[in-house]
Amino acid sequence: METVRLVLLFVHILGFAALLGGLLVQARLPEKVVNPAMRDGIGTAFVAGLLLVGVLEADDDSVNHAKVGVKFAIGLVILVLVMANVRKERIPQGLWMGLLLLTIANIAVAVFWSPVHT
């Protein structure tokens, strides 16, 4: 089960890396869009995160449900905002900045909050 957990964690991190990269690649562009890296990144990170919690619960590991809930809520908001704007020709600067801040916040929760399992 440890191997499955590590693979899911790796995929989860790759998903957030793709999302963050998709956002940062547009930093100097005057017009922002929801690009495939953002769409695929948040989808991958969200699904892998759900599966990761499932594996931890199935393995009877102690799970910090408050942390998982916060990460789930932030991830869900990002997912909804990205998917709601995926077909739009461009997105407002404020939405792009909000997505960037939410992504950074979710990463910060993962890094600075106590571990999901002990």
From TrEMBL:
Sequence intervals crossing the membrane: 6-25, 68-86, 95-116
Keywords: Membrane, Transmembrane, Transmembrane helix
Keyword Membrane belongs to the record: yes
Highest taxon of the lineage: Bacteria
Official protein name in the record: Integral membrane protein
Organism annotation: Nocardioides koreensis
